[in-house]
Amino acid sequence: MNPRLLVTGGAGFLGTHLLRQAKSFTATGTLHHTPATALPNVTFHVCDLEQPEEVRMLLDRVQPEIMIHTACSDQGANLSAIVSAAGLLAIQSDERRIRFIHLSTDQVFDGMAAPYIETSTTCPINPYGKAKSQAEDLVRSLNPQALIVRTSLLYALRSPDRQTRHLIQATSTGNPFRLFMDEWRSSIWVENLADALLEIATKDLSGILHIGGPQALNRWDFGMQLLQHFNVTPTSNIQKGTIQESGLVRPPNLTNLTFNSSKAQQLLQTPLLSLSEARMIAQKFSDNLSE
Ligand SMILES: NC(=O)c1ccc[n+]([C@@H]2O[C@H](COP(=O)([O-])OP(=O)(O)OC[C@H]3O[C@@H](n4cnc5c(N)ncnc54)[C@H](OP(=O)(O)O)[C@@H]3O)[C@@H](O)[C@H]2O)c1
Fold first, then answer.
1. What is the pTM for the complete model shown?
2. Choice from 53, 55, 70, 128 to test ligand 1 binding pocket (greatest atom count within 8 A of CB)
3. Architecture of the structural domain at 4-154+188-214+257-274
4. Which residues of 50-60 are buried (b: 16+ CB within 10 A; e: fewer)?
C-alpha cells in the first residue's frame, strides 16, 4: 500500500509538480479558487485552509499519513492566510500524528549574514517574509515533530514558469525590463525540489531544513541562462539593474540570501542540481520525447 500523501496548494506551481511526481504515493491535492491540472491517479478536494471546519472535514476524508503544505505563498492579496493556514494544519497534523512538511522561504532572512544555515537567526524585512517567519514559529510551537523546509526561487525548465514568461514576453513587447545584478539567490529547479521533498516525505525528520540549488546566481545571469534555455534571444530592452535603484523593499544585500543546503544534501539521495545540471537533465528528457 502506497503512503497517503496530501499536498496543499494542488494547483500551485510546486504543488502541481509534487503531485505529478508523487507516483509512489496515494496522492491528494487541495484546491482553492484555481482549477487543477488533470493528473492521473491524483484526487483533488476544494478546501479553504483558513477554515477550521473545512480542514477537519478534509483530513477526516483523506486520512493522510503525510502532508506537504505548499499553499499560501506571496501570490494573492491575503498574506494573513500564510499564518492562519499554517497554524491550523500544524494543530491538526500534531493531533492526528500526520507527518507535516511546511514550506517556507529564504525571505525569512534580511540578507546580512549569508550563506544562511538552518540555525541562522531569522530577520524578515518585507510583509511576505514576516508572515512566513511567523508561520514557522507557529508550526514549531504547535507541532514539534513538523519539518520546515525553506527554499529559494523556484524555476521550471520544460516550459517557462510565470516569471520567465514575463521575461520572454518582454523580448517581443520592447518594454524596459530590468534584471537585478545585486539579487543573488540559491534558485532551484521545481522538479528537483519536488523529488527532494518526496524523498523527505518518507523520512522521519523534524526541525528546519534548507533546500536550495548549490550555485548562487544573480537575477541577470539567471534570466540570461533561462532565455538561452528557451532559445530566446535577449533584446536591448532587457537591461541590468540593481535593487537599490528600483526602490523595492527587499533585503538590502540579496547576495546574502543564498543558502547553505549541505545538511539536506547529506540527508538526501536526491542530488541538488545547479541550473546548468538541471538544464542538461531537462534537455535529455525533451530529446528522448522527440526521438
Ligand atoms: N515560488 C517560489 O519561487 C518560492 C520560493 C520560496 C518559497 N516558496 C514557498 O513554496 C510554497 C509553494 O510556492 P508556489 O510558488 O508553488 O505557490 P503558488 O503557485 O502561489 O501556489 C500557492 C497555492 O496556495 C493556494 N492558496 C492560497 N490561499 C489558500 C487558502 N486560503 N486555502 C487553500 N489554498 C490556498 C493558491 O490557490 P488559489 O490560487 O486558488 O487561491 C495556490 O494554488 C509556498 O509556501 C511559498 O511560500 C516559493
1. 0.96
2. 70
3. 3-Layer(aba) Sandwich (3.40)
4. beeebbeebbe
